[in-house]
Amino acid sequence: MVKVYAVVLAIGFLGLVAILFSGTLAENTASPKRDLNQRIGPRGRSWVGLILGFGMGGMAAEFSPLDLSWQVAAALAVVGGWVGFAWVRFSERTAAGR
Known about the structure:
mainly alpha
């Protein structure tokens, strides 16, 4: 399962980097069409948070000094994904002033 978490974490990291770089590029070139952050919207950003949280939670659980079974590690990865999703949704709401 470590390979699954590593691949998911790498995909989430690449998604985050793509969002950050496209936003920087759109701002510096004054081309809002290039801004991936605006194009994917809150739902897409939430998915990126979910993917990153799942990958980080799974990797942390697998490399824990505790001897966790793969079922517990998978459950912790799901919890990490949910926390990542919830954090992005929370930050979206607080940034909008709601």
